[in-house]
Structures are given as structure tokens and as C-alpha cells.
Amino acid sequence: MSLGTLPKVTAYAVTDADSPAIRDLAAQQESAARFSTFSADAAWEVGSAIRAAFLERRVGDQGVIISIELFTGHRLFSAVVGAPPVVGPDNWAWAAAKLNVVRRFGVSSLRKGREFAAQGRTPEAKGLHFPEYACHGGGFPIYLANNDSGPIGAIVVSGLPQLDDHQLIVDALASLPHLLAK
After folding, report:
1. How far apart, in whole angstroms, are the C-alpha atoms of residue 111 and residue 12?
2. Which GO terms describe its biological process (predicted)?
3. Can you give the residue ranges of every domain in the chain?
4. For residues 42 and 179, is the Cβ–Cβ distance under 8 A?
């Protein structure tokens, strides 16, 4: 199934009742969003598409930060849209915490958070405390199609409600099918 044909997580509410559906949809999105290769040029294209998608749907003075980072620590893309107090250092703390969830579990931060909720558990009960971890939408794994051993990095958005942060990434990736594996 192609990424663009999947439902949007924003069709759901962040409730325990919707958690299994959100978790399963996030897993489908991750599976459909495998890259054939990933480079600094691809990161620029993805980050720019996220920024453009945000600007198209921006309401009022909303703001986001966008970060694309490899797990080697190499940040390939970084952008801020908006100004303080809408966007500031707290957004970077959230971004780092979401990235840590993707790095540790190999799945989107939204999916991991909804897995915990579907089990009636909290991330904190498993030792995942903020500011080190944030099991909220907005961290998305970068997987290569020919590598099942784990993601090579993460795409992170912070500043909107968690379902919107996540869906902004997915919508941008769906607009770039030439970067995704067939």
C-alpha cells in the first residue's frame, strides 16, 4: 500500500480507545515510508517538503521545528518556522526526546506512545521519563528498504499537537514518492 493512500492519524482522537487504531496505522505508515537511499540531498528535500506543508496549513502564529538526524549524530536538516514564544528551546528538548524514542525502539514516537496507552501503561512506568524520552507524535524513523536491522535516523517535528506533528511528516513523505522504495 502506498503512503498517500493510507488514512491520516489526524482522523482519530488521542484516547485510550483510539490507541490501537493509531498504533496500527502508524506501523503501516512506517512500513510504506522506506527510502531506497538516504543522503543529505534527500534530507533537504524531505525537510523542505515538511516546511512547505506546514506553511500551507499554518493557523495563526503556530510554529514548528524540523530536524532530520542520523543516529551517528549527524544532523542533515534543521529549521524553525515561527518565533518565540511560539517556538523556542522547549521544542528542541521535545525533539531530542522524540528522537531518543525512535532511536531506542526503532518505531515512531507516536506509535510507541499509543502502544503504551493500548496496554494501559505509561512510558514513565517503563522508566521513560521526559526530558530524555517523549512518546508523543513527531518522531519518525528513517528506514532503508534493504535494511531490516533498524532505522538509520529520524525525522522530527515539534510544535503542534502530536497527531499533527506526526501527520505533517507522513504527508510530506507521501508527496515525495521518488525518494521512497517501490
Report:
1. 13
2. post-translational protein targeting to endoplasmic reticulum membrane
3. 13-179
4. yes
Q: Pick from 57, 131, 56: which is nearest to 91 by CA?
A: 131
What are the start-end ranges of the H helices in the chain? 19-32, 40-57, 89-105, 109-118, 162-174
User: Residue 150 and residue 109: Cα distance in Å, rounded?
Assistant: 15
β-partners of residue 140 are 155
What Rg, from alpha-carbon coordinates, does the chain have?
Answer: 15
Cα dihedral across residues 7, 13, 17, 20: positive or negative:
positive
Quick one: pLDDT at residue 35? 98
Neighbours of 126 (CB within 10 A): 13
The upper half-sphere exposure of residue 113, i.e. CA atoms within 13 Å in the direction of its Cβ, equals 24
Give the HSE-up count for residue 54: Cα atoms under 13 Å, Cβ half-sphere. Answer: 26
Residue 147 CB partners (closer than 8 Å, separation 6+):
none
Decide if domain 13-179 falls under CATH 3.65.10.10. no
Q: What is the pLDDT along the chain (182 residues), one digit of tens a residue?
A: 789 899 999 999 888 788 999 999 999 999 999 999 999 999 999 999 999 999 999 998 999 999 999 999 999 999 999 988 899 999 999 999 999 999 999 999 999 999 999 999 999 999 999 999 999 999 999 999 999 899 999 999 999 999 999 999 999 999 999 999 98
Closest CA to 118 of 20, 8, 15, 9: 20
